[in-house]
Amino acid sequence: MPVRGGGGRRGLGFRGGEWVFAVVGLPFALVGGGYALAVLYAGALLSLTVLGLPFVVAALLGARGLGALHRRLVGRLLGERVEAPAELSRPAGLVARGRTVLTDPVAWRTLLYLVLRLPLGVLGFVAAVALPLGCGWLIGFPLWGRLLEPGARPAALLDAACVLLGLLLLCTVPGAVRSLSGANRWLARMLLGPAGAQRRVRELETARATLLAENTDQLRRLERDLHDGTQARLVALAITLSLAEDALAPTAGPDLGRLRGLVGRARGQTDDTIAELRRLTRGIHPVALDGGLGEALPVLTTTSPVPVTVRLDLRERPDQAVERAVYFCAAELLTNVAKHSGAGSAELTASAAGGRVRLVVRDDGRGGAALGVGTGLTGLAERLAAVDGVLGIDSPSGGPTVVTAELPARL
Fold it and tell me: What's the number of CA atoms in the CB half-sphere (13 Å) around residue 379?
């Protein structure tokens, strides 16, 4: 996922880095565009010779290098962090390696980027340099006219029109530079990053690694809780029952008072053990989900210390894995509301229709929630990605905070 940087300080309505990119980027655009056009032209000419395929393989490798250079340039000056594509695999044998390069979508997309970057680079230089210079010439036209024609020269309508036109065009410079910078950002995101399939594979690999790590941690916690908690309670219960058995057969007859106390203690230990087992199994599969989200979510909100209004529109029942993801997502978000938001009230809205599930948690707290600030939202987004879900956060400083999770109803 691309990350937008802060960029430089804004001047005249656009970032300083955008103007630098428009000026400095022209030579890179000319070199890159010329390279791409030369590769395509020479590759077509050499395609019927033995030199054709080796030339195209070398050219595509060079295109990958130019793509990396342009990614750094876009990231440094425009603040658009474009994720680097995966490295090329290196199979054994020259033929296999050549086939890998020729079928590499990243290299071909980079060539297309270099071709499209050429006119954008020219337009950017015109907007950032030529247009302001032209505006300066128009604004100073009356002065240039007097310098070129010494002597008395009456003011003409042409002088006023030139000044007005120059000022009007000068006002369009920031918007033009900003628009062309946006086009360059979009082009870099679309063509210089990983291909759609590669990006999807990488997201799934990250989500799988996250889920495996979380499942491993959960199993370790469960094992530790069973060993240190439930097992210890069962051992204590067994000892109590052994003492009760001893109290039943003393030489002087049963000690009913002691026996009654031991039975009471055993009952208490049994109740504690059952409660402990329920607590542990609730984290594996909430019993409330047996009746679907329509029953589970209202029960979940009753445990929140912050009053929660529930609005449900569940026209279809999602897959069990999706229900679990929505349930634990709602639990995590309500926990964040209680611990971090300082909110006085919250609202939970869930809908399932048209093959999509949407969960929205809104609170009137202080705001400022974001990925990576210690509220567990990053891990939550990664868990949702494992079921093709996305997490959206709108939390300005001062609130309110609105967190939206969208998932497919069927996997």
Answer: 14
Domain count, the chain: 3
Same domain, 176 and 278: no
For the chain, what is the mean pLDDT? 79
Query: Which tokens belong to 186?
Result: 């979009």
The reply to whether the predicted model has a pTM over 0.90 is no
pLDDT, one tens digit per residue, over 308-335 is 999 998 888 888 888 888 888 888 888 8
Q: Which domain holds residue 273?
A: 198-284
pLDDT bucket at 274, cuts 50 / 70 / 90: confident
108 and 242, same domain (yes or no): no
Task: Characterise 306 by phi-psi region: left (phi > 0), alpha (psi -120 to 50), beta (else).
Answer: beta
Residue 2 is predicted with a pLDDT of 34
* The predicted structure's pLDDT at residue 361: 92
Q: Are residues 274 and 306 in the same domain?
A: no
Q: What is the pLDDT of residues 109-123, one digit of tens each?
A: 899 999 999 999 999
Indicate if 76 and 208 belong to the same structural domain. Answer: no
